[in-house]
Amino acid sequence: MSKFYPLKIKEIIRETSQAVSLSFEIPENLKEEFNFSAGQYITIRTKIDGEELRRAYSLCSAPNSEEFKVTVKEVEGGKFSVIANNKLSAGDILEVHPPEGKFIFTPGEERKNYAAFAAGSGITPVLSIIKTVLRDEAHSKFVLTYGNKSIDDTIFFKELLQLQSQFPHRLFVEFVYSRTREENSHFGRIETSTVNYVIKNKFKDHPFDKFYLCGPEAMINHVSGVLKTNGVSEDQIQFELFTATAEEKEIEGDTDGQTAVTITVDDEEFSFSMDRKAVVLDIALENDIDVPYSCQGGICSSCMARITEGKAEMSKNQILTEDEIEEGFILTCQAHPTTPTLKVDFDDV
């Protein structure tokens, strides 16, 4: 069973006119279950007009800080984000899945230099990472380049300034605004010139060990490309998508006909037949199988499973590495069967 726990909202903090932070109370008996690493996310499950919704939100608090907090930016036409920003109150109960995700920072003993490029609500996991670096790696430095429309739209603007003031020789923030011109800030978007200015000009004496990118796919792809052009290796770049392209790749395998699928989840086996043009997760849910999932868009890893027999191809994948795909891992929300039988194990991840 995909485990969700009822958690009480301790506090709601208005961050901007379109974003709130939800701080949860973690009961003593669930503290171990809800331990997390910097950069991870939670999935919130709720029902709206009888429809079950699941939404993934990154934790913006640092591990072991006695805070368990996510930030929800209101999206036009969004279902849960509108409710979170306008109707939820302290004391309300939400069902929450324990933290997960692969965009993880683990502090070490060595002195290092880190850089992050974030846009909009992409700051949330990055803030968790920044706080962890400043607290747990006493000699490491962090450079953040953070893009928004204006100061008023900048989530954690005051908190970042406070952290800068507290750690003036270890945290450096380059604000980028696309709609307003502000003193000591960049005007425009995070572009090639912005990246080059940070790594080749202002902070050229900081040999960066790791880069963290979070935000829209277009920004991540562009920044990654510029970094690689400047000699940064792929294993130095870690990213988390908050929005992804709608483009899907063409499935090369045989998508005609039916596939006999067997799913293993929580040590139970379930079998069904499905059209190969459909995706595994959708049909599993139609058969009332309680498999883990969240975004259903191929940008989180909640629905990851391992193929133990047969083959499937993904129409989208911004998460799994080539090595993981070689090992048989798939995102079931994007996976189309291409063989007469397919066996998928959610427990073996």
Q: Unreliable stretches, pLDDT < 50, 5 or more residues?
A: none
Report on the biggest sheet. Answer: 6 strands, antiparallel
Q: What pattern of helices and strands is seen along the backbone?
A: EEEEEHEEHEHEEHEHEEEHEEHEEE
Helix content: 10-25%
In round numbers, the mean pLDDT is: 94
- Per DSSP E runs of 2 or more residues, the count of β-strands stands at 19
Strand order of the largest sheet: 4-3-6-1-2-5
Helix/sheet category: alpha/beta
The fraction of residues assigned to DSSP E strands is 25-35%
* Global outline: globular
Number of helices: 7
What is the distance, rounded to the nearest whole angstrom, between the alpha carbons of the first and last residues? 15 Å
Description of the structure:
The protein has 349 residues and is α/β, with parallel strands linked by helices. The protein is built from seven helices and 19 strands. The protein has a six-stranded antiparallel sheet. The protein has a six-stranded parallel sheet with strand order 10-9-8-7-11-12, with helices on both faces. Strand 3 (41-48) and strand 4 form a beta hairpin. The chain is globular and about 60 Å long.
Helix-strand blueprint:
Layout: E1 5-16, E2 19-25, E3 41-48, E4 51-58, E5 69-73, H1 80-86, E6 93-100, E7 113-119, H2 123-136, E8 141-148, H3 157-166, E9 171-177, E10 186-187, H4 192-202, E11 210-216, H5 217-229, E12 237-243, E13 258-265, E14 268-275, H6 280-286, E15 304-309, E16 312-314, H7 322-326, E17 329-331, E18 335-337, E19 341-345
Parallel strand pairs: 7-8, 7-11, 8-9, 9-10, 11-12, 13-19
Antiparallel strand pairs: 1-2, 1-6, 2-5, 3-4, 3-6, 13-14, 15-17, 15-19, 16-18
GO molecular function: 2 iron, 2 sulfur cluster binding; flavin adenine dinucleotide binding; metal ion binding; oxidoreductase activity
Keywords: 2Fe-2S, FAD, Flavoprotein, Iron, Iron-sulfur, Metal-binding, Oxidoreductase
Protein name: Ferredoxin--NADP reductase
